[in-house]
Amino acid sequence: MAQRISMAHGEGGELTHELIKNVFMKYFHNQTHARLDAAILPWNSNEIVMTTDSYVVKPIFFPGGDIGKLAITGTVNDLAVSGAKPVAITAGFIIEEGFSIRDLKEIVKSMALEAEHAGVQIIAGDTKVVERGSADGVFINTTGIGQLFEQRLEPDAITEGDTVIISGPVGEHGVAIMSARKELGLITDMTSDCASLHHFIEEVVTNVKGVRVMRDPTRGGLATTLVELCEDFRFDLELEESWIPVPDAVHGACDILGFDPLYLANEGKVVFIVEAEQAKKMMEVIKSHPLGASAQVIGRVKSCDNASGKLYLKTPIGTTRRLFRLSGMLLPRIC
Amino acid sequence: MAQRISMAHGEGGELTHELIKNVFMKYFHNQTHARLDAAILPWNSNEIVMTTDSYVVKPIFFPGGDIGKLAITGTVNDLAVSGAKPVAITAGFIIEEGFSIRDLKEIVKSMALEAEHAGVQIIAGDTKVVERGSADGVFINTTGIGQLFEQRLEPDAITEGDTVIISGPVGEHGVAIMSARKELGLITDMTSDCASLHHFIEEVVTNVKGVRVMRDPTRGGLATTLVELCEDFRFDLELEESWIPVPDAVHGACDILGFDPLYLANEGKVVFIVEAEQAKKMMEVIKSHPLGASAQVIGRVKSCDNASGKLYLKTPIGTTRRLFRLSGMLLPRIC
């Protein structure tokens, strides 16, 4: 592998995967919870789910949110897609010398507001300051703990024919960040979809049986998220390209800049895999919620037996191609 | 207050206190756990203690440790002084583009080793990469959860005459970092005292009754730590300067650079306040453990009724002066 860290190591794609495998997992291998994303921990009669994320988004204020809001919604959503109700969050700030205290107040206010809205407590914090030029404004780590929903997920029950559903259109956060970065010369009125999804997710999971697994397709986009899922649980999946909801502004931005909407980050979407028989009921429940009003069925599980974990995309002209993890550079510091 | 963040906002002293009060607590005020250091959270029949810290120490490799070891010991110790047995830790990395993967492996290996030694699991992680010049090498956030020891602390029982004990000499981590920063021109063979203290602390708390409260005097040093404690629990405390163990090399470094050993960071020490009658028994238990072999009684609680929370230092010549929080700059990026 490489000798030095490149920006692509932080894109959530192939190189991030390699870094996790060859560096973090290599030395943390003796730890029981291998995936290193969210972990479930037995706690006497209960179980705790715990997850961590650092936020380095650039710019720190963007249409539809800021780094503070994102630091809450991102961690809340990681817990929710792990099948848990978020309970408490810690916040660690690394601030660059010279950073505006007014901006810091805006960010902290925005965190407090989103935490209140989401119904989670911010229970502990830490502040470090580094010299001018040793950080870029402010970085925030949030770590959350949550309690498993009563209704458990069944990833091991994933079977041929299971339905894949996305709760809404893809690419909004990615395009909002791109247009906020003036240097790209992209002008859109797209706002980030960043939102806390756990109330919505809890409602879906409580009312629909047969939910196998969920993910929030953030860094790396829908394609990378589903590739990871296929590999983790060893099934093949086929997406119907024409079924995937992509807003015109996302299409437009991708055409101009040469990006693929399936690799753009989302911060308020969830992708479900559900037993085929429950798909209709699930679509009803999802679409009755504001956060799921534009949900779509986008594909199905093709095979499970002897599957090596491949993601396929069926195009409108009838051809099928394999999708891989995001490889190389797309848009650094998206979250 | 100031308009912009200065390095002193990160020193753990007066300005850090102001920042927490005027920015973080202002907006997080509706949260139940006010101290924002470690928090205790009810969890059905149990209680969880949770704490977070980001590590930005410079240089990342120093005599006696590195940023990885420190990220484990620091969070382990925060849990232990809160009266809890560390159970699980998450790790969030922010890495500068171009950082050496070999160094990253060293750091991760050192974390894994210290976690194994301390008996805690690293259960979840996150990696972000920022452009060259947008961070300084690597920053690590660790967040830990723990379970309260059976023996509970009694900070509200603090009373006049209670004894203050420190587990060993002060200033070693501070001086080790200073001499690792070649630009200060300080040459010593001092190594950092950084160590996981929870086995030691659990042994003390289990075998000695009447332990009121404990703290690890890290950033801001023994003086700042005790000022915070006096203010939090509204008691006055008097230290005997000549009883405080200060290694010769620490004295020497402080003489040269104009620092005060009481404000230097420690990463492997704990200060206890204990009922006076238990102090002798406690010293026996502490001194029988390698991490407490050089422990000393250093002072006592002077008054509790109507106390406003002041820390005093009685000097060898018989005068007494008041000690305050660290104010202004001492040594940035000590942890």
UniProtKB/TrEMBL annotation, chains A, B:
<dbReference type="Pfam" id="PF02769">
    <property type="entry name" value="AIRS_C"/>
</dbReference>
<feature type="domain" description="PurM-like C-terminal">
    <location>
        <begin position="160"/>
        <end position="304"/>
    </location>
</feature>
<dbReference type="InterPro" id="IPR010918">
    <property type="entry name" value="PurM-like_C_dom"/>
</dbReference>
<dbReference type="InterPro" id="IPR036921">
    <property type="entry name" value="PurM-like_N_sf"/>
</dbReference>
<dbReference type="InterPro" id="IPR011854">
    <property type="entry name" value="HypE"/>
</dbReference>
<feature type="domain" description="PurM-like N-terminal">
    <location>
        <begin position="37"/>
        <end position="147"/>
    </location>
</feature>
<dbReference type="InterPro" id="IPR036676">
    <property type="entry name" value="PurM-like_C_sf"/>
</dbReference>
<protein>
    <submittedName>
        <fullName>Hydrogenase expression/formation protein HypE</fullName>
    </submittedName>
</protein>
<comment type="similarity">
    <text>Belongs to the HypE family.</text>
</comment>
<dbReference type="InterPro" id="IPR016188">
    <property type="entry name" value="PurM-like_N"/>
</dbReference>
<dbReference type="Pfam" id="PF00586">
    <property type="entry name" value="AIRS"/>
</dbReference>
